[in-house]
Amino acid sequence: LVVTGEGSLDAQTAHGKAVAQVVALATAAGIPCLAVAGRVLVRPSGIADAEPLSTVDGDPMRDAARLAADAAERLARRFETA
């Protein structure tokens, strides 16, 4: 399992952002890829699931580490039960 992330999963993600490279490598290796992002506007091909930070309570700038950890945990729980 690969978990990657960025500030915003959007239309530009598939066109040169680092996440696109991570997804390509994971896909080529046959490894599922999940993403945590500040915002999830689109889920690019190759990303099995994505979780935004923006749906949780807290100040994203001040609480970034906690919000990212919480989002990753929610994402992992969904992946485990899928």
How would you describe this structure to a colleague?
24% of the residues are buried. Helix 1 links the parallel strand 1 and strand 2. The protein is globular and about 35 Å long. It is an alpha/beta fold. 37% of the residues lie in helices and 24% in strands.
- Mean pLDDT comes to 87
Largest sheet: 3 strands, parallel
- Overall 3D form: globular
Low-pLDDT runs: none
Order of strands in the sheet with most strands: 1-2-3
Calculate the terminal CA-CA distance, rounded to whole Å. Answer: 13 Å
Share in helix: 25-40%
**Gyration radius, to the nearest Å?**
12 Å
Number of strands: 3
| Beta-strand proportion | 15-25%
Number of helices: 2
Query: H/E series, N to C?
Result: EHEEH
State the secondary-structure class.
alpha/beta
Structural features:
37% helix, 82 residues, globular
Write the layout of secondary structure elements.
Layout: E1 2-9, H1 18-29, E2 33-40, E3 49-52, H2 64-81
Parallel strand pairs: 1-2, 2-3
Could you give a short description of this structure?
The chain is an alpha/beta fold. Helices cover 37% and strands 24% of the residues.
